[in-house]
């Protein structure tokens, strides 16, 4: 866990300044979790009292419609924060599934601990504000891309933004994320 915490400290320091004393306080609020490929971090219908920082591995966040069709909202890999944020923020029940696509390691923080830490360490509140804003911008760009861009452009944008993702994720999941069939994806992903 110590190595994971050092990575997290570096992650925070890329965005905000925190003192060693603040870091000691912050790091005491995280626990370590390890999951195998295909294990769920979150399943639809669960309470979601935690947010997760990915130390190692790759997950997909998705929901299923009644017919069983899967809609992938996000791939998250090392240095990403992941949760069902609606359920997390509102102390509600998850409407999403988050499934490990690889063996994965996480640092886990509860909602209550996050709120307490943000009061005690204002730099941490600033960090989460910056990360939330960047996440919102990314989501906004993704939605706009789904509305206006061709599937090929969406694929090329994904490859540009996350070049190694295509090697780590099965093509059927990439197709689902892009909102296209596997056959359509194969036409421009060669």
Automatic annotation (TrEMBL):
Q: Which Pfam families match?
A: cNMP_binding (PF00027)
The record's section on InterPro entries has: cNMP-bd_dom (IPR000595), cNMP-bd_dom_sf (IPR018490), RmlC-like_jellyroll (IPR014710)
In what residue span(s) does the Cyclic nucleotide-binding domain sit?
33-118
Output this protein's name: Crp/Fnr family transcriptional regulator
Superkingdom of origin: Bacteria
This protein's species is Flammeovirga pacifica
Q: Specify the signal sequence span.
A: none
């Amino acid at each position: 866990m110590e190595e994971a915490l050092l990575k997290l400290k570096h992650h925070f320091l890329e965005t905000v300044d925190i003192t060693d004393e603040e870091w000691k306080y912050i790091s005491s609020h995280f626990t370590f979790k390890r999951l195998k490929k295909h294990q769920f971090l979150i399943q639809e219908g669960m309470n979601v009292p935690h947010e997760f920082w990915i130390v190692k591995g790759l997950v997909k966040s998705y929901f299923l419609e009644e017919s069983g069709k899967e809609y992938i909202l996000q791939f998250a890999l090392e240095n990403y924060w992941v949760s069902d944020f609606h359920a997390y923020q509102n102390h509600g029940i998850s409407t999403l599934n988050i499934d490990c696509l690889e063996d994965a390691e996480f640092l886990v923080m509860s909602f209550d601990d996050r709120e307490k830490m943000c009061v005690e360490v204002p730099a941490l509140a600033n960090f989460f504000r910056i990360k939330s804003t960047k996440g919102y911008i990314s989501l906004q760009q993704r939605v706009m891309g789904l509305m206006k861009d061709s599937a090929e452009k969406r694929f090329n944008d994904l490859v540009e933004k996350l070049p190694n993702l295509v090697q780590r994720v099965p093509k059927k999941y990439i197709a689902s994320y892009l909102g296209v069939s596997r056959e359509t994806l194969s036409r421009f992903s060669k």
